[in-house]
Specification:
The complex is a heterodimer of chains A (300) and B (188). With 300 residues, chain A is α+β, with helices and mostly antiparallel strands. Helix content of chain A is 26%, strand content 30%. In chain A, the strands form 3 sheets. In chain A, strands 1, 2, 3, 4, 5, 6, 7, 8, 9, 10, 11, 12 and 13 form a 13-stranded mixed beta sheet that branches. Chain A has a 3-stranded mixed beta sheet with strand order 15-18-17, with helices on one face. In chain A, strands 14-16 form a two-stranded antiparallel sheet. The longest helix of chain A is centred in the first third of the chain and has 26 residues. Chain A is elongated, with a radius of gyration of 38 Å. Chain B has 188 residues and is mainly alpha-helical. Chain B has 2 domains: 106 residues, RNA polymerase sigma factor, region 2, helix turn helix motif (Rna Polymerase Sigma Factor, Chain: A); 82 residues, Arc Repressor Mutant, subunit A. The longest helix of chain B has 28 residues. Classes of the chains: A alpha+beta (300), B mainly alpha (188). At the A-B interface, helix 1 and helix 2 of A face helix 2, helix 3, helix 6 and helix 9 of B.
Chain lengths: 300, 188
């Protein structure tokens, strides 16, 4: 408000000019009214003004930025998808065969879960297993690794069976080799490894420093499940019941806790019903059986 | 208006011509109130004056690519408002509605307060309002809105010499009233 008077030479008039400079004029609109008016004006102008006829405008740059963000999001999504492991879970009462990208196959027993990366061949041929699987591994440049409940099985090209149930009473992992050479070790103690030749088996359970020394094993027994046979050699009843639950998709309620830790050896080379197998074992172990809505009850 | 303010406005104009909406918002906050005040001079009604001011800003934005950066933006803005306000009055006249029906004339309540202030303080506000329209307009644009005589000339579509005459006449009238006021006070 201290604008200099420009063309007035009369000192009397200058005095008036100075005096009127002190006048305060009340605003005719409040700041709130100004903001509301600005909102109205901006809505009328619209957010897209200038984009079409001025590609270098800020709006255009923002538009490009949005496309860039979308592209990055898409790439991230694709990468996330590629790196998200693929998981196969076999329903109870069924078997399944997984064909891996490198040509290897895994036959999975009922209730087993196998996980692998989609970019399998580039990420170094690693799978993880909970359950039982028979692996036929194609020879390759990189080692083929199976992670199973704290164990690692490392091979180049070979056929083998891994039985590794997290529900196992001892959380025991058993590896049995049909052909080729494999190395087996606890994942956290990779120096403590054993080499297995065809026809041998080793095992490891949490708490042990090293895997068991390889012992000769009947591969025919081990892979019996592939032919829908059931083979139990000195197995605790808990293991047997778990296997029957998975194979026949039933629930077994055990009301005699003393029974589950007893071991049994049994061979069922022809497919039998769950009831037939459970009755058979009951004859030997001295428990009784009754049918429930989902399976069987085992009691004294 | 200081030199710094002028530079600030010049920067805003440059940004607005590059479609910078934030600069437009800043300019709006700076000039919306003076524009409404200026428009009321013609419309005699605040709501219409607000409409005129908002339409003028929209027109400024739509013509942002054609704004001559050499021309002072203030004068440009005042000219848009003036033309639109006069158009508004003419539209009103064409509908044969007398101006009185356009609503109550907005009067600054503070003016009434100051009329009752102590006798010595000269009521310049009242005297300014009593000036002839064109003198009053030119004087206020110069004294309160900080426009140069050249800018006022371009806004009011007059020669700078006529603008100067209006302002000098206004000052003479105000001085006469002031002297009268002083002598009244001394006698009293």
């Amino acid at each position: 408000m201290n604008q200099k008077n420009q063309h007035i030479s009369d000192p009397d008039l200058n005095e008036i000019w100075e005096k009127t400079g002190h006048l305060e004029r009340d605003p005719v609109v409040t700041p709130e009214e100004t903001e509301r008016a600005l909102g109205r004006v901006n809505r009328q102008i619209g957010p897209d003004q200038g984009r079409a006829n001025d590609p270098s405008s800020r709006e255009a740059i923002w538009l490009k930025a949005r496309y860039l963000v979308a592209a990055i999001a898409l790439i991230a999504f694709a990468a996330a998808w590629l790196f998200t492991p693929k998981t196969v879970t076999v329903p109870y009462g069924e078997f399944s065969t997984v064909h891996l990208p490198d040509g290897s196959t895994v036959q999975l027993n009922s209730g087993s879960t196998l996980t692998h990366h989609r970019i399998f061949t580039f990420s170094g041929r690693e799978v993880s297993l909970n359950g039982e699987g028979y692996f036929e591994v194609q020879p390759g440049n990189s080692p083929f690794r199976v992670e199973a409940n704290g164990t690692t099985t490392e091979v180049l090209g070979t056929n083998f069976n891994i039985r590794s149930w997290s529900s196992d009473p001892d959380r025991k992992t058993v590896i049995s080799v049909s052909s080729g050479l494999i190395e087996f070790f606890p994942s956290s103690l990779s120096d403590n490894r054993v080499q297995l030749k065809p026809g041998t088996a080793s095992s490891w359970a949490p708490g042990l420093e090293s895997p068991a020394d390889p012992d000769p094993v009947s591969i025919n027994d081990i892979t019996g499940w592939l032919d829908n046979r059931m083979v139990f050699r000195d197995q605790p009843l808990q293991v047997v019941f778990n296997e029957i639950e998975r194979r026949y998709n039933i629930e077994i309620d055990v009301e005699v806790e003393s029974v589950v830790s007893e071991t049994i050896t049994a061979f069922y080379n022809e497919p039998r019903t769950a009831e037939a197998i459970l009755e058979d074992i009951g004859m030997v172990k001295g428990y009784r059986l009754s049918e429930t809505s989902t399976g069987f009850r085992i009691f004294k | 208006m200081s030199e710094k303010d002028r530079e600030h406005i010049e920067t805003l104009v440059e940004l607005i011509s590059e479609s910078d909406r934030k600069a437009f918002d800043r300019l709006f906050r700076l000039f919306y109130e003076p524009m409404v005040r200026y428009a009321i001079r013609f419309t005699k009604e605040k709501a219409a004056a607000c409409d005129v001011a908002q339409e003028s800003f929209i027109a400024l934005w739509q013509n942002r690519k054609r704004i001559d950066p050499e021309q002072p933006l203030k004068a440009y803005l005042y000219r848009i408002v003036r033309n639109r306000a006069i158009n508004w009055i003419q539209r009103l006249d064409n509908r044969n509605e007398p101006l009185e029906n356009a609503g109550p004339v907005s009067e600054d309540p503070k003016i009434h307060e100051e009329e009752n202030q102590d006798d010595f303080s000269a009521p310049f506000e009242i005297w300014i309002r009593e000036l002839p329209d064109r003198q009053q307009e030119a004087f206020e644009l110069s004294r309160f809105d900080g426009l140069s005589h050249e800018e006022i000339a371009s806004v009011m579509d007059l020669s700078p010499k006529t603008v100067n005459n209006h302002i000098v006449s206004a000052l003479r009238t105000l001085r006469e009233k002031y002297e009268q006021h002083l002598s009244n006070y001394n006698e009293g």
